[in-house]
Queue: 4 jobs
Job 1
Amino acid sequence: MGTKRLVIGTLVGGVAVLATGYLIFTLAFSEFYAYAMNSGSATGVQRDPPLLWAVAVGAMSFGALVTLAIESRPGAGNLGAGIRIGAIVGFLLWFTADFTFYGISNVGNLTSTVVDPFLELVPGAIAGGVIAVVLARIR
């Protein structure tokens, strides 16, 4: 994999993660996460307004990770494989982060810790599909 492919995959994947993340976590499930972030003694931990530059940096990192996963699998340059790889990466990334945060802090609750990795399948899958389709055109 060349630098050009990594940069393009990172950018399109990051934009896909930002867009789907906004739709899912800000529009569709904002009340669920607002409750989860303010339950127990961890109240008032959600930034208002959020630091969008930091969210974008995280999304680009997610895009780079999915790009590296797709590019490391021979024959994974199609939509179906990209969706599958992106979903797996998204789930495992957030399963790790959510349970680690749950274990070491009082941010969130067990319900959000279990639900979040499954919701993260969607941005990961969409990013993976977009990355695979775009990179297939750059052979």
Note: The chain has a mean pLDDT of 86.
Job 2
Amino acid sequence: MIELVEPSADQRALFDGLAQFYAYDFSEMTDNPINPDGRYGSHQWVAETWAAQDRFIRLIMYGDEAAGFAIVQLVSEGHFDMEQFFVMRKFRRSGVGRVAARMLFLEFSGHWTAEQITNNVSAQLFWREVINEFTAGAYEDTMGEDPMQSFVT
């Protein structure tokens, strides 16, 4: 059973841990260095995201196990951006991410954008497939600095 959970204060450490895995995965595309303490510099980002009024964090749970997280940004009234989306490797290609994305689109109804960095080809394929399926092809795919899909839920 896949569930989206708004994290409580006592789940902040879980979110921080997942953010470390996310930063690690992303390091192969962004060349982010590891800090001398053996961690990626996500503590500041986690603190800012946790406190931001325009961001909605959701833990992606598969039963009792954390499978990843999503951060949805409120860009303006009724306009949302998939700021970050992370599924742990053991849950990839299992449908967990696809279901979680659809659940987010339904929870935050309105205009959406989802942007991927240019060299993250697997994310581009994932979002194009998920958004195409969700919208029955009614989305716009643009290439600015990075690829981005726009659609309405």
Note: The mean pLDDT is 92.
Job 3
Amino acid sequence: MKIMNMTIGDFREVETRVWTEEVLCSSLVILPNQGIELHDSGFKLMQFVAINSKEEPICRMSGCSDVIHIDGIGGFGYKWNEKYNGIPTAIEPRAWSMDCLPCGLFRLFIGGKYIIRCGPSLSSFEIFSVKI
């Protein structure tokens, strides 16, 4: 089913991935957890639905995170320490964008020649831009 036609309930029914599996996708839909469960920080937990290039769901992820770190914690990118041999002094810009689906959920995506790499489901959910 195409994401433009999906309801919040449809997104909740998407199959969950194994928490350690990395996923590549073209966009992410941000799905608040049901109920009143909060993270230790006091913020609401989130789930994320990975979306393929055909605008269809791949899998649902996380559910234990209260934050999403775009291009990783610190914003340095995927495996930045190996790539830059320390903290980089300059990082190539990325074209991250967000819009709102008809059902009211937010979709995060990246433009240009990039896809999104989703890390493991931990307390802090890291995503990275990866050149294709």
Note: The two ends are 25 Å apart (CA to CA).
Job 4
Amino acid sequence: MNNKIFTKGEVQDIYDELASTYNLSLLLFKIIGFRVQSYRREAIQNLYLNPDDTVVDLGCGTGLNFDLLQEKVGPKGKIIGVDLSAKMLEEANNRTKKKGWKNVELIQSDMSEFQIPDNTGGVLSTMAITMSPEYDEIIKGISDCLSKDKRMSIFELQKPKGWPQWLIKVMVELLKPYGTRYEHTQRTPCISIKKHFKDVTVQNRYLGSVCIASGSGS
């Protein structure tokens, strides 16, 4: 089981178990110079959100993007957090209550089944969409839903060009507790953004292992 890509149900179980320690576990990435918060901020900036916008955070997890999104949409805007894991959403709900936010809606759903609301001002996904085998269909569907002046932005890990195979395997090993397997390195959501969106911007970070991509709807 440890060497295969997990089913959606198994991924849900993994993140239910991780939920209470997920935020703390990310400190390891900071220690090795992986600037998670900076990459999140960059992805959100690429959405060009306006005050009062509605923004969808696909795979929102414990709500680590919410503070940054609140800065963009303000108290009259709306954040819709979507996640497969009920326990991760519980953590996101705890964060929301602690902050006193009244404009956050949390929805338990597989992102491939979630329907983007008509009034959406932007769609975000950070370190989440690669976990879905339907990532390309999800991205295409969002492109079809968004108006041409609205954007989707993702921050994802990717297989770096030029890295030796042993180093890629080390990276996968570090990510195994999060359900990552070597087969995930064959998934290319940033290429899907290029394929399905217009006015695309792509930035590579952390020696090419991070891709931040965004584009306008069709």
Note: The beta strands are 54-58, 78-83, 104-108, 120-126, 151-157, 198-205, 210-216.
